Amino acid sequence: MTALFCAIGAFALLVSPLAAPLPLAAQEAPVAVPAPQAPPASLQSGDEVPWLYQGSDIPVDREWLFGEMKNGLRYAVRENGVPPGQVSIRIRIDAGSLHETDKEQGYAHLLEHMLFRESKYLGSGEAIPTWQRLGATLGHDTNAETTPTHTVYKIDLPAITPEGLEESFKLLSGMVREPVLSNANIAAEVPIVLAEMREQSGAGQRVSEQTLATLFAGQRLANRRPIGTEATLRATDQASLEAFHQRWYRPENTVIVVVGDVDPVQFARLIERYFGDWHGQGPAVPAPDFGDPLAPAGADGSNPIGEVAVAVEADMPRNMTYAVMRPWRQVQDTVVYNEGLMLDAVSQAIINRRLESRARSGGSYLYAEVQQDDISRSADATFVSFAPLDGDWQAALADVRGVIADALSHPPTQEEIDREVAQFDTTFASEVEQRKVLAGAKLADNIVRALDIRETVASPETALAIFRGMRARFNPANVFEHTRKLFEGDVVRGIYVTPQGDEASAAQLRLALARDADPDGASRLANRTISFDKLPPVGKPGEIVERKPLGLLDIEQVDFANGVKAIVWSNNDEPGRVSVKVRFGGGYRSFTDATAPYATLGEMALVSSGIGELDEDDLDRLVTGRKMAFDFEIGDAVFSFGAQTRSADVADQLYLFAAKLGMPRWDRNPVLRAKAAAEIGYASYATSPAGVLARDLEYLVRDKDARFATPDPAMMKGTTPEGFREFWEARMAEGPVEILVIGEFDREAVVETLRRTFGALPPRVPLSPEVAARVPAFPDADNGAPVVLKHRGDADQAAAVIAWPTGGGTARLRESRQLSILVDLFNNRLMDALRERLGASYAPAAISDWPTDLPGGGTIRALAQLRPKDVPVFFAEADRIAQDLVENPPSEDEIQRAAQPLGQLYNRAMTSNMFILLQLEGATSDPGRVELIRSLVADHSATRGEIMQLLARRYFGGRPGWRLAVIPEGQELARAANDNERTEAKHPQVPAISGR
Hints:
The protein has 996 residues and is α+β, with helices and mostly antiparallel strands.
């Protein structure tokens, strides 16, 4: 538990007027002495090789405990206190969409839904409310996934108690072992799955399906989407779904992984208690044969080109993927095998760096990548993907294959190898440094991932030792051998996606792939070493004018003579890790209608444009062997650079950020590349309702403020590298600068680095009063008449948004936190109405946006993807929910279902340095933010019904919500009739479900 969490979490509960005291009985209850318990019967111990490591010589990670029960169920358990008090449970069933028969397509995923609908210990619709009462947030802490090869149930339980943990295992055992698969429940859940299918459909999904059908032709993966088909889902009945459940949901197909802030032996006891008497019905059924990639008929090895396809989608950007396919075979996960994987990784990294260098220099493609992957235990393949800049796909293909051909004909240089090895070494070493702060949920997911690919897990120390132990093998001969093996295979398949049908044919694609590639030696990277100690200073070191405590723990503020201010907090809560953020300038306030397109270009090209004498390739060389980053973000009222770095690299990370402000470079190619990417991708926004929302919602909900418009090709055409420099050069010198540095580091050394870097910058140009005063407006609701946009996707897809204005700034920040609870209440009701009761939408959502850097501009938004005919249903339900919250305070149980998960979410977040950094942003100019941190958890976790009603009246009452509907081209927006017709006549087949 971090010091900040201990100090603030406890203090918040004492000072907040919203926090309820503990019941007297809870305060005075005597401490019970637990009775001795026998060790779990199936826990593996001593010299026994754990089941996960059988056949492997990878050293066992002894922090894990393993068990294998007589019924075949296996488990892995581990103690971990990140975040404090949380327990993460994963239940993996070794069955996914590849295990289905033709008539069962979609059953694995449908079962995932059904387990959350009703089971032995949970009545219909009770699962989600029950997990919420245990503090778990829907979607964040309570989730599941179905892939071609497995189904995994994921529960993260915050602030768990012994009683809550016991109850959780009981509930999960009932869900997995005895779900209620009645025809009534199937009828209620299938519309939800169909809504999910509808949200996934469209041009992108069609391309994905055709890609799988082409690359995996003749294999089950070619036509086994986890979502299934509408025909098979609608035909599902109780008998067929129960048969699928009985066939695959068996103990020998199940692995349970539990990680958390509890003695792992207790996890083992609970697993054995609730799953030990589980037995499968009938004999076990082996998994079906997933098939192998087959070479073309009559192929003799000289011409391995197999299936190829051209996918024509009018609004999709050009993209090509081809793959060298090999059969997948389970391997022995040994040290030697992992050494081979590391050589493969270095080989791919060298090619990818060469491909990227070619793209940066003005090549014929926007991006290109080589990646070896084992796909769904169906193929071991090397994929080559790239995006041509224009319709000359053959030139782009030739350029990409030329880079690869050179790598296959000439060994890499030792300098290239050393560069990639240094990067990997840093990654492995960072994992060792930061293992103390590795979240339990991630550790659990690592086991699940290993199970899926039939491999083991290794401790960070083991991974680093294996990597460093093979240093001598990282030489040109070995890397060259592995590079060539990556492109050996019995069959090559490919697909080209294009918006123009006459641009390519399958015959042309086959011919182009069969043609010999000319090696392109120009893509090799020249030897050149660049080091930080050779770089020029940012300027004359500055003067510190004041150092003072910030008023929270030992966090310090450092002010420099040039106006730059820094917040510094050195702690050892996250060993080796340092979070850095630099806030400067005016953010979106700095743009005008004319300069708005440079926001999009800035997000893509500002960092890539270079620093001083260093271009983008030089920057890559400079950070070789370092853990450094250069994230750039445009906020409501500020620009920011950010990075997660290491203690050893923090000084150089600060230099990079300061140098970008003090001596920026303005290369043309990154701007031209970003411009091409924006123009190429614009049409794809129109392919779905979600794309249209991504393109236009921010612009419209800010009253058509051009600063928030997604620039179309005509707007982009007017941008130039010269205009880019003119705009952004001024922004680099404008507005205040605030730096936040939090993590494990030498405080005095970092303060001195700040003095030599940011303290050395020239005084900043103040923001003009006009810029400083800009706050986005909210559109007129026009008496509830919706704005209607059209998309060019599927005819059964639509989206709807309703929004209300709120506020911004920190003066009423505590009110905004209570507003978050109200919005979560709204979200729960919206989910219940549109998903559970009506089956109209898979994942409707309500969110609150309250910008802290502006005095206004906040919104509440609710949105959903649904059928066009259900758009009026969405608006009616949203209005009904808002009006009911205005007229009636919510019940205490409903408040707890919203507030407890939200409070727990912030409770856990407070243990993260990065989260504390985000809360401290702006504190050098607004000191009140520091005091507001003390009540953050309590403000989000406790409230009263009258407060919720008061906020509902303030933000929902007296005004209609602003509305937006996105419907297909060629259709008109449907009009709702009366309420009875809307909620009953249109959905007579779906029973009303309470809860969730």
